[in-house]
Amino acid sequence: MGSIGRNTRRVGLAAVAAVAAVVVAAASAASPPILSRGPHGEKPTPVSKVVVTPAEVAKVKAKHATAAIVLHYGGNDWSTAQVAGLRAEFKKLGIRVVAVTDANFKPDKQVSDIETVLVKRPSIIVSIPTDPVATAAAYKKAARAGVKLVFMDNVPNGMKPGKDYVGVVSADNYGNGVAAAKLMCQALDGKGDIGAVYHGADFFVTRQRWDGFRSTIKKSCPGVKIVVSKGISGPDFAGDADTAAGAMLTRYQNLKGIWAVWDVPAEGVMSAARAAGRNDLVIVTEDLGKNVAVELARNGLVKGLGAQRPFDQGVTEAKLAAYGLLGKKAPIYVALPALSVTHANVLQAWRQVYHAAAPSQVQDSYKK
User: Fold this and answer.
1) Burial class (CB in 10 A: 0-12, 13-18, 19+), 254
2) pTM for the model
3) C-alpha 215: how far from its chain's center?
4) Are 237 and 5 in contact (CB under 8 A)?
5) CATH number of the domain enclosing 38
6) Which residues constitute the domain of residue 217?
7) Does residue 178 lie within any of the structural domains?
8) Which is nearest to 105 in space by CA: 84, 77, 86, 79?
9) Is 179 in the same domain as 94?
10) What is the DSSP pairing of strand 148-152 with strand 167-171?
C-alpha cells in the first residue's frame, strides 16, 4: 500500500519506457522468496507467470475496452507509480482509462467513487478497497454489472475469485516487514530498545508489514526489544506519527530506534526525532517515497526500508484485467518480491521501483 504518503514526484511514462526492460531483468535476477500469503491464505503466484501473448493482445485490442482505477488515496509516490504502470500496460492492450479516483482513505467516498465510475460503464475496474467490509456491496454491484474487477493488495469481504473478481496483485508486504526488521537489527548492531508506529486500521497489507516486522525482531534479533508501539489511523498520518513518536521519545529516553509502517508516518517520526534533538535515532520503514529516499541518500535518520514495486504491480494488474476480458483462467493471488533498500543502493532501488532515474533532489543528496 504503499508509499501510502504524499506525493513529491510524478513518474514520467517516457522515462519508464526507456528503462523498463533493464529494470525488470535486474529485479528478476535478484528476487528473494515471497513470504506473504493472499488475503484468504492463498499461495503466491510469481509475476513471471502472468503472460499475455501477442495473439491475446490483438484479441483484447479488438474489444475496445475501457478501465477505471479506483484508489484508496492518490497523489503519493506509490499510487502515482501504480497508475503509471497501469496506464503503460493498458496502452499496449488498447484499453482506454476513463477515470482515476481518490477516496482519501474514506470508505464512504470510495463507495461514491465506484457508483460514479459505473455510470461510465467501464469494462474493467482496478481498485484497492479502503475497507473490506464497508465497500463490499459497491464492488459486488460492479461485479453483477459485468465489470471485470482486479484488486490491488486486498479484496472486499464475501467476493470469490474467478466469479466476482479476476485476481489480486500485491507486494510481499510480510516480506517487506521482515526486511525492515533485519535492517533495524543490523543498524543497531543487534541490541537496543525500539518503538513502532503501526497502522491502526483493519488494512490487510499494513497488518502484514507489522506482523512481519515484530515477529522477525522477536525471533531473529533477541537483543532488540519493541518496548512501545502505537497505532495511527489518519488521515494525517505524518502528523499522527509525529505525535506518537514524540511521546515515545519523551517517555523512553534510551530508545534507540523507531519503525514506521510506511514512508509518510516515517516523515512524522523524523520530525519528532529532530524536535527532540535525537539525530542519533535509527528510523526504518517501508516504501521508497521521495522524502525518505532523500534521508537515506544523505545517510541521515532513515537507515533502511523494505520497498514495494508499484509500477510492476500496476503492469501485472492490467495483464490480469486482460485475462478477465479473454475469459482466461487467472491466478488468484500474484505477489512481487520485497526489496531491501539502504543508503548503499537507494539510487539503484529507485530505478527498480519506479522505472526511472531517482529525482535530482535524491541524487544531489547522496553522500558517498
Assistant:
1) exposed
2) 0.85
3) 20
4) yes
5) 3.40.50.2300
6) 173-308+342-365
7) yes
8) 79
9) no
10) parallel
Q: Are 20 and 131 within one domain?
A: yes
Unique residue bearing C-alpha cell 537507515: 303
* Arithmetic mean of pLDDT, 342-367: 96
Q: How far apart are the C-alpha atoms of 10 and 81, rounded to whole Å?
A: 8
Instruction: Please answer whether residues 341 and 292 qualify as being in contact, where contact means their C-beta atoms are separated by less than 8 angstroms.
Output: no
Q: pLDDT per residue over 291-349, tens digit each?
A: 999 999 999 999 999 999 999 999 999 999 999 999 999 999 999 999 999 999 999 99
Counting the structural domains of the chain, the total is 2
Helices (H) then strands (E): counts for the chain: 13, 13
Instruction: Say which residue the cell 463507495 belongs to.
Output: 111
Alpha-carbon distance of 27 to 248, in angstroms, equals: 37
Alpha helices of the chain — where are they, by DSSP H?
A: 13-29, 54-61, 77-93, 107-118, 136-144, 173-187, 204-220, 237-251, 263-275, 290-297, 310-326, 346-354, 360-365
Using an 8 Å Cβ cutoff, are 296 and 343 in contact? yes
Same structural domain for residues 141 and 262?
no
Amino acid at 86: L
Euclidean distance between CA atoms 97 and 322, whole angstroms = 14
| Cα distance between the two ends of the chain | 31
β-sheet with 224-232: strand ranges across: 224-232, 192-199, 257-260, 282-286, 302-307, 339-341
Question: Which band of pLDDT confidence, cut at 50, 70 and 90, is reported for residue 24?
Answer: very low
Output the CA torsion sign for 178, 181, 185, 186. Answer: positive
Please check whether residue 231 is in contact with residue 259, taking contact to mean a CB–CB distance below 8 angstroms: no
| In-domain check, residue 248 | yes
Do 156 and 36 share a structural domain? yes
Q: Helix, strand, or coil here: 179? A: helix
Residues 135 and 67 in one domain: yes
Task: Take residue 1 and report the three cell numbers written for it.
Answer: 500500500
List the grid coordinates of 295. Answer: 534521508
Same domain flag for 76 and 212? no
Q: Can you read off the three cell numbers belonging to residue 207? A: 497488518
